[in-house]
Amino acid sequence: MTQPTPPLPRGSREFPLGLHSIRGAWATDAQANAAVWAPAIPSMDVHWQREDGSWTSETLVGLDGGVHHGVVGPVGPGALYAFWPTGEPLPGEIGSAQLLLDPYARAVRTVSRTDAGGASGRAYYSVLLEHEFDWGSSEHPRPPWRDTVVYEAHVKGLTRLHPDIPEELRGTYAGLGHPVMVAYLKDLGVTAVELLPIHFSIDEPHLEALGLRNYWGYNTLGFFSAHTAYATQAAQDAGPGAVLTEFKGMVRALHEAGLEVLLDVVYNHTAEGDQHRPALCWRGLGDREYYRHDDAGRYVDTTGCGNSLDFSRPKVVEFALDSLRYWVEECRIDGFRFDLAVTLGRDEHNAFTPRHPFLVAAGASKALRGTKLITEPWDLGPDGWQTGAFPVGWADWNDGFRDTVRDFWLRDAAAIAAGGSGSSPARLAGRLAGSAETFAGSGRGPLASVNFVTAHDGFTLADLTAYEQKHNEANGEENRDGSGDNRSYNHGAEGRTEDESVLAAREQSARNIMASLLISLGVPMITAGDEFGRSQQGNNNAYCQDGELAWVHWPEDAASLRMLESTRTLLSIRRDFLAAQPATFPSRQDQSTLLWFDAAGLPMTAAQWDDPQRRTIQLLLGSTGGSINGLVVVNGSPEEQRIHLPAARILREQGVHGERPRWFSATFDSVTGRPTSGVERLLPGDADTVAANSVRIYRC
Fold first, then answer.
1. Which element (helix H / strand E) includes 575?
2. Which residue, of 544, 579, 614, is where some domain finishes?
3. Active site residue: 334, 376, 507, 598, which one?
4. pTM (predicted TM-score)
5. Is the same domain home to 412 and 543?
6. CATH number of the domain that 607 lies in?
């Protein structure tokens, strides 16, 4: 009988990039396919650690399109590995000296090293990681944009001080996925958790010299690797596979509760820093190919972080897209917020274009279909402000909304209190109505606007009402860092005070801002802790504060609990209102009601819109086929205002037909944060009184 011919060893392939175990009938002895793009290097070696701890290497014999590739082995699961140009002197003892990381490594390990001069430090090695995970019955929640409420949080900072989470889980992926935290987020009423960077990151040298850490994590060294330090100690001790299991377990727990997981991603630069820093990965594999240079060979830095990845290069675009696909396909991530996204849309002339191949490809990718793509629509390069300019399919952080709301409720209030005047209501009205003037030019509507007033960088909501100057002395830069343009108002005292009138005014301003955010058309984003008044003691750039200053302190005092109640009430009002509207609201403007009235209940005139003395306006929201309407009254004046609700005749003249609204019932007042007392229902045309500097919401 003829014996079957054994399969021939398979030749290596240039794809997928990275180090991957070979599977199939032709796989023997734990072989792996190694592939790395380094077009300027003639020949490349891969070094890896054997199971007995010794190191070996092989030269990658294949070279296609600048990709060095070869079949190597045996390489066991969890093996450390790195690349180095063939024949080039090694920088030291392998296993402790810094070789070149695999840009596609699924995990990165930090090892201790000592240089020739005896100084200690760290080196980073890639880890071969093949991973399986039981997702159970969990699925992507996929709430539509119009129902989405984003909650921006830091994995460590959110739970590090939470008293009801087991101590060993606090500040970890498992802590965020703990039932206590999941239940809190559901009860609050948010639908998506946007996590500050969880890609493997390292500290900048200047922070190490100050004894500080890069707490935020915007200094990525591994775009396919979950940050190890956010895992529990037990998972870290068990190895990279356990870290990834814990991360995926967090995602599964949030998904099972109907909560999306969005990642803040930093593809605009890498942790290699400026041009004169040592190579860790991309700089050694292809400095000219990965980073943007000018004609003189100097780095073009549009990020303020020392380097900029060159997205005019197809392989850089491919690298970022491959990373995104990995997190969606392997880790079931629901969307991304792109840090300094304008850098990702710059062409070969360093000019931004909304038709950039990366933006088009990400929006058209089958693997990314249904994921939420959110831009930070600016960078530090020429023409770096591009809010509203990104293409259909993308949403933008709306800094115009942030500035306008801060101006109306804080800077204007400060000016009026000092005897001056504030701005007219026109700008605020435009922002509450979806910022059409910003997004219409790109063919997008209000759901392309991610509305926010605070984010991780800048003052917290509570600090916006308590500080007029930044207080960043703890950052070690003599208070030079952080923005000086905060548009804040301390209400008469800088920082902490025992003055009850000041504290009451601050609380009311915070509720006014939260109400403006949560009743606006668009997609609201809340910064973790703002819902109950978290403070950073005036530090508006806590990127290096990995401690109690930046961690979330969970509420116990009466003021915090009042603010939390107000936020939950507002989110409930928003949710109930949207549930009563057809799915086309607010995208179909021909079916949506958005009408403006003055304090007398009459339609606003052009002269009134431009009058800074008329800071009391009424906004009626609803839609054809909706079962309820909402009326929002904004009083930005320093005196209480007698108002008249829009009369039935006026509403008919404005195109509101049918039986609604038949009555108006107050559901929120920012003076107390709760529904108003007194008359339960008012009729169209009835009078009411609205307190100074306040927001009142009626259901009608």
1. helix 558-579
2. 579
3. 376
4. 0.96
5. yes
6. 2.60.40.1180
CB atoms within 10 A of CB 144: 11
647: containing domain: 589-699
Please state the rounded mean pLDDT for residues 510-531.
98
Amino acid at 269: H
Indicate if 686 belongs to the active site: no
CA 658 distance to own-chain centroid = 42
| Count of CB atoms situated within 10 Å of the CB of 261 | 26
Question: 252 Cβ partners below 8 Å, 6+ apart?
Answer: 135, 136, 138, 177, 332
- The answer to whether the beta carbons of residues 145 and 522 sit under 8 Å apart is no
Find out whether 78 and 240 touch, Cβ atoms under 8 Å: yes
146-171 confidence digits (pLDDT tens): 999 999 999 999 999 999 999 999 99
246 is catalytic: no
CA contacts within 13 A on the Cβ side of 252:
14
Distance separating alpha carbons of residues 18 and 16, to the nearest angstrom:
6
Q: Is there a single domain that holds both residue 544 and residue 626?
A: no
pLDDT tens per residue, range 348-357: 999 999 999 9
- Judged by average pLDDT, the poorest of 202-211, 508-517, 567-576, 679-688 is 679-688
Residues 615 and 524 in one domain: no
Which of 301, 339, 546, 669 is labelled catalytic? 339
**CA–CA separation, 398 and 389 (whole Å):** 11
Where b means 16+ CB within 10 Å and e means fewer, 155-194 reads bbbbbbebeebeeebbbbbbbbbbeebbebbeebbbbbbb
| Sheet-wide strand order for 62-64 | 18-21, 32-37, 67-72, 62-64
